[in-house]
Amino acid sequence: GENVGLHLPTLSVQEGDNSIINCAYSNSASDYFIWYKQESGKGPQFIIDIRSNMDKRQGQRVTVLLNKTVKHLSLQIAATQPGDSAVYFCAESGNTPLVFGKGTRLSVIA
Amino acid sequence: DAMVIQNPRYQVTQFGKPVTLSCSQTLNHNVMYWYQQKSSQAPKLLFHYYDKDFNNEADTPDNFQSRRPNTSFCFLDIRSPGLGDAAMYLCATSRAGHYNQPQHFGDGTRLSIL
Question: Which residues in chain B have Cβ-Cβ distances shorter than 8 Å to A104?
């Protein structure tokens, strides 16, 4: 049923600091992982993805780390900016449609 | 330019009155998805089309149906909306081949039930 009153975990960071958003996944058969950013009133926007044959992948200001042993995924954002304020979702796939994690709200303090 | 376009952005309907949400794409992707997203929650997959093959999630209510008349368009029909169906509805697409690739989302339709 619906989780009435559910609150997203929130991460508050100072502008210019690095942010780390964590995600635990449960399906050991998942071999593809992706991070999305969702701003208020918009659809999820692709940030970065990683396949299970890698443990690290870097993009512009973002890095995704994958630890398959403990089924953990993280998104690192360097030099966080006010425009990074949004909800961040991880998602996983074992050649199935993506399954989304619960999301983390990132608030950047100017 | 928007590649996954959802119309309308906001939809208001009455309790029990059928409503249709639409999605179009210019990516020529084979797979189209419909998600329901409630406030402060993750998107929840309702169903998806892999080309013309319809795939329903086990817990999607019978009240929700979908049509895909061609590659570019996909519709979400809610036959008798209840108050619990008020949510953001997201459409997404991905290329054919396998699911291990990014999905491209539209900006959603926010549905309100009076």
Answer: none
